[in-house]
Amino acid sequence: MSELSQEVVRVEDIVKDFRPGLGLKKKRVLHGISFSVRRGEIFGFVGPNGAGKTTTLKILMGLIFATSGKASILGHDIGESSFRRHIGYLPEGPYFYDYLTGREFLRFYAKLCGVPRAQIAERVTNLLEAVGLAHAGDERLRNYSKGMLQRIGIGQALVHDPQVLFLDEPMSGLDPIGRKEIRDLIWQFRDRGKTIFMTTHILSDVEMLCDSVAIIVKGKIQYQGAPKDFLKNERHSAEIVFAGLEKSIQAQIAERFQASVRDSDEHSQFGVAEDQVDDVLRALLEKGAQVVSVTPRRATLEMIFLNAVQEGGR
Ligand SMILES: Nc1ncnc2c1ncn2[C@@H]1O[C@H](COP(=O)(O)OP(=O)(O)O)[C@@H](O)[C@H]1O
Ligand SMILES: [Mg+2]
């Protein structure tokens, strides 16, 4: 396959301004963002609340229009409509008709998507099975838990067997079991060769699920690539907790090794680069400190994300 056909989503220099009201100053929410998603991957569009994730997704879905820039899905400009039957979409906080049963809800969408009449019943039964709701198909949505609603929402997005699934915050508001169920669904979908584009602000889910991420903070992309490459660039560090050292000597050692310092009543703590741990320990012991503990600290996506947030805020 060519490089181009491997690209399922391509976003180029998208800008979005909102005008809060007549005469009011426009607010720039997306500052020229670019990224791409490859076929068959689980792509995480990651960022804190208000970063612009849902806005980007709405632009891709054709629900709102970009101020400038362009984007394509499956090689088609998003202004076209023919490709839309190959994509599924779970909006953020979707609205459900809570007097419908799960089965009726899916039937409604199957009709809407033009599934042939003779196939609807079977398709809906298979979908209920696929999202783990076979037992609850005839219950009303108002009796569904948050996790069940997310799953029926994903069922809705899968009704026409799409190539690409767009999920806006599929994990939000779910307990650990609910999150695991959604993860399993996403993995199953990927194992069938499909592509997933999901937004999230939950980093543990990103670390577990995503093959590739783009991190967006305040409407700007801060990073795109594999989550693990992102982590590799971070310097590993360690925490050394110790006691019994005079403050002036402590300060000297801290300066020599560029250690970050935290003091409590009982103990002091140095944060140092991993490859300097031996030297710092030697210096501390030489001056008569008692070392209480040494703990390696792996940079997590969480920390990196926080750094990106701080840098984005400057
Ligand atoms: N229709 C709108 N009018 C004005 N501002 C909006 C509108 N929709 C979103 N915003 C603003 O755009 C920013 C990004 O929002 P959103 O895309 O929902 O972020 P995220 O999904 O990452 O939490 C927020 O500051 C939000 O208040
Ligand atoms: Mg959102």
Task: Give a written overview of the molecule.
- The chain is an alpha/beta fold.
- It has helices at 53-60, 102-112, 117-130, 146-157, 176-191, 203-209, 227-232, 247-257, 277-286, 301-313, and strands spanning 7-18, 27-38, 42-46, 68-73, 76-77, 87-90, 164-168, 195-200, 212-217, 220-225, 237-243, 260-263, 268-273, 290-297.
- The strands form 3 sheets. It has a 6-stranded mixed β-sheet with strand order 6-7-8-3-9-10, sandwiched between helices. A 4-stranded antiparallel β-sheet has the order 2-1-4-5, with helices on one face. A 4-stranded antiparallel β-sheet has the order 12-13-11-14, covered by helices on one side.
- Bound molecules: adenosine-5'-diphosphate and magnesium ion.
- The site of adenosine-5'-diphosphate has 12 residues, from strand 2 and helix 1.
From the spread of the alpha carbons, the general shape counts as: elongated
The order of strands across the largest sheet is 6-7-8-3-9-10
Tell me the number of strands: 14
Overall pLDDT level: 88
Radius of gyration: 25 Å
First-residue to last-residue Cα separation? 42 Å
Number of helical segments with 4 or more residues: 10
Ligands present: adenosine-5'-diphosphate, magnesium ion
CATH architecture tag of the largest domain: 3-Layer(aba) Sandwich
Oligomer: single chain
Output the helix-strand order: EEEHEEEHHHEHEHEEHEHEEHEH
User: Which secondary-structure class do the elements indicate?
Assistant: alpha/beta
